[in-house]
Amino acid sequence: MKFFTNLINNSFHKKVYDYVLNRDKLYKIKITSSPSNAKITMNGEEKYFGAYKKGEIINYQVSIEGYSTKEGSITVDNRDVSKNIVLESM
């Protein structure tokens, strides 16, 4: 039993250590849309927010029925990015 407790505790401490080690090296990327209920995908995953390292490229797509789909990419720099995508109705 002690083996499993140590294994879990070490795993938890490693995650905390990794977070503390990388927290100043990760940048928040957030994409919002108009209309607000559009589907947003980032690197193939349906999400609108993420934390990335400098130099990573995030490919995004914003779409909703009745509007033109917009695609683009963001290259992570030394800052957080918040981008609003306005879709045009067809």
Can you tag this structure with a few keywords?
90 residues; alpha+beta; four-stranded antiparallel beta sheet; 1 helix; 43% strand
What features would you describe in this structure?
By secondary structure, the protein is α+β, with helices and mostly antiparallel strands. The protein has one helix and seven strands; from the N terminus they run αβββββββ. The chain has one helix at 2-22, and strands at 26-34, 39-42, 45-46, 49-53, 57-63, 70-75, 81-86. The strands form two sheets. The protein has a four-stranded antiparallel beta sheet, with no helix packed on it. Strands 4-1-7 form a three-stranded mixed beta sheet, with no helix packed on it. A hairpin with a 2-residue loop joins strand 2 and strand 3 (45-46). The chain is elongated, with a radius of gyration of 18 Å. 9% of the residues are buried. The mean pLDDT is 85.
